[in-house]
Design goal:
Blueprint: H1 27-40, E1 45-48, E2 57-62, E3 67-72, E4 82-83, H2 86-91, H3 97-107, H4 112-117
Antiparallel strand pairs: 1-2, 2-3, 3-4
């Protein structure tokens, strides 16, 4: 009896053009997808500076340019995370290649699916967030919203 192979779950997303937006994506979604694509292709260095394996503070180092940026991972959605790079500060997309690089690396770690299934964890005790060590914050700024 011949054994059946499990279907390949590593379906690759089609490569996006940097110059020609696809007709099926809004411009902001195209730009987020480009950053995801570019970030996942990088060979940056990564160091976890926090005490948690997933929702933590990281340093991303570009060995070619010798630049480093601080990245805070708090969830999978646009606007959940933070990066100190100029692109993140100005693009109003809620992501950048550094955040996408870290997320891609974290998604490959054991326990990632379970950790990210919860949606995200905040560690900011204040009057607007719960005071437990790992509480979800409901007052996070929406980085995807357009400013007037």
């Amino acid at each position: 009896m011949k054994s059946q192979r499990a279907p390949d779950r590593s379906v690759k997303e089609p490569r996006l053009s940097r110059t020609h937006p696809p007709v099926h994506l809004a411009p902001a979604d195209w730009q987020r997808a480009l950053r995801r694509q570019f970030g996942r292709d990088q060979t940056f260095g990564l160091e976890n500076r926090g005490d948690q394996p997933f929702f933590s503070e990281f340093v991303v180092v570009n060995p070619q340019s010798k630049t480093s940026y601080r990245v805070a991972i708090r969830g999978l959605n646009a606007g959940d995370n933070y990066c100190s790079c100029p692109d993140y500060a100005t693009n109003e997309l809620g992501t950048c290649k550094h955040i996408e690089f870290v997320l891609a690396r974290l998604e490959k770690k054991r326990g990632a699916k379970t950790a990210f299934a919860g949606g995200g964890v905040r560690r900011f005790p204040s009057s607007t967030c719960a005071t437990t060590a790992h509480a979800r914050c409901t007052s996070a700024p929406d980085r995807t919203a357009r400013r007037p």
